[in-house]
User: Which sequence fits this backbone?
């Protein structure tokens, strides 16, 4: 088979796709990876030749139209007050059409007309048997539909967009309207598979929330880290429990939606633990002095660091979340601002971990207090049930099909949907 992968222009999203891409390649299939130029180097580092589609953005667009950092209502927390954990299942209740409109606006920015045209030209000339697309890159299913090729969505978290579309069904569907306008320009029309794929590859744990009625194909997440050397201190004997503190790579540019580094560092300053904080200079610019128990590193592979850690505090990103499960490390999750990060995954990750007893939802970034984080860290470090449950979850996900196991299933699914995709495009199979 020929298989085209289309990740979002974000290294963390590319890394989630990489194990499946390599499983297909080592099984003898021809694999290409197409994305915008800003992750071309990351695609090369992952072992593939990048096919650049669309243009590099001159600046990162805001995710949500009409909602910018600083425009959300201020959150005032009373002394000692804790935010109650919201639930992923509940978030579409209020103003689903408004939320869907914001998300669709962002998707249109990620999938420009130029990117769609480039993908149509690539698929028409190379003729892949399957297109595997990042759940944030709708240029790929649009182009695959135009060319009559089966396509599979790959999730990075819960399917919050389907949640919103179902909740807003009676009011409108801006995602459908946008994609239908795009497809009409190519002589075809929107169908539901453009939004959800002919099937959905899901590398998240089975207990994470997903809407009912999706054709989910589970696969085990395999951690992929960028090339890096292991620091000497990571091989030295530990004197105290170790905690990893990270906001991942996606939050390093400071969009105003992430947890403040100062609050995170203040929370860990009094702990009898060694804290490894993967912060860059920009994140530390306003920190006058680091706590004595904090070691700052710009980057260290989590797959190498986490086996030595008693806990990890992070933003809830899919790669960090899944790597911590793979390493059986209890997690404390602080999603970005509540008005900005409900549907991308961190909330569902936190819900599932807390329900499974393997972690804690601390607070959204706009509800965070250093006291709340310190309290939760002390609880996780003291209570052995968190580690025991993290071990249980590791055993559970180890039983999921590996990317290698998935390859024969992809063969069957391509055969199943080849005629359907060809008929949609009005061409012979």
Assistant:
């Amino acid at each position: 088979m020929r298989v085209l992968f289309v990740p979002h222009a974000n290294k963390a999203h590319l890394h989630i796709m990489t194990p499946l891409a390599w499983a297909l390649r080592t099984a003898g299939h021809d694999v290409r990876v197409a994305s915008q130029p800003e992750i071309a180097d990351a695609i090369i580092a992952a072992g593939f030749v990048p096919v650049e589609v669309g243009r590099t953005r001159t600046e990162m667009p805001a995710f949500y139209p009409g909602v910018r950092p600083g425009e959300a209502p201020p959150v005032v927390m009373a002394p000692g007050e804790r935010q109650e954990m919201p639930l992923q299942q509940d978030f579409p209740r209020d103003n689903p059409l408004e939320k869907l409109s914001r998300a669709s606006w962002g998707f249109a920015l990620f999938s420009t007309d130029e990117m769609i045209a480039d993908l149509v030209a690539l698929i028409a000339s190379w003729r892949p048997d399957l297109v595997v697309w990042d759940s944030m890159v709708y240029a790929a299913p649009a182009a695959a539909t135009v060319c009559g090729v089966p396509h599979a969505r790959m999730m990075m978290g819960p399917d919050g967009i389907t949640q919103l579309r179902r909740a807003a069904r009676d009011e409108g569907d801006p995602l459908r309207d946008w994609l239908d306008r795009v497809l009409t320009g190519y002589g075809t029309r929107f169908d539901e598979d453009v939004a959800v794929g002919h099937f959905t590859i899901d590398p998240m744990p089975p207990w994470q929330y997903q809407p009912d009625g999706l054709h989910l194909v589970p696969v085990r997440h395999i951690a992929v880290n960028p090339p890096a050397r292991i620091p000497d201190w990571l091989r030295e004997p530990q004197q105290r429990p170790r905690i990893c503190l990270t906001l991942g790579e996606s939050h390093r540019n400071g969009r105003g939606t992430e947890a403040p580094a100062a609050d995170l560092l203040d929370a860990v300053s009094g702990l009898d633990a060694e804290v490894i904080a993967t912060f860059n200079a920009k994140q530390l610019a306003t920190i006058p002095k680091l706590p004595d128990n904090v070691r700052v590193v710009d980057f260290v592979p989590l797959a190498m660091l986490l086996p030595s850690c008693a806990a990890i505090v992070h933003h809830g990103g899919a790669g960090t979340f899944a790597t911590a499960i793979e390493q059986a490390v209890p997690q404390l999750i602080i999603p970005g601002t509540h008005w900005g990060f409900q549907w991308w995954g961190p909330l569902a990750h936190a819900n599932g971990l807390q329900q499974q007893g393997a972690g804690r939802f601390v607070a959204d970034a706009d509800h965070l207090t250093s006291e709340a984080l310190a309290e939760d860290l002390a609880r996780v470090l003291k209570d052995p049930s968190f580690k025991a449950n993290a071990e249980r979850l590791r055993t559970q996900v180890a039983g999921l099909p590996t990317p290698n196991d998935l390859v024969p299933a992809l063969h069957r699914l391509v055969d199943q949907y080849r005629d359907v995709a060809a008929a949609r495009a009005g061409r012979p199979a």
Q: What stands out?
A: Residues 403-425 form the longest helix (23 residues).
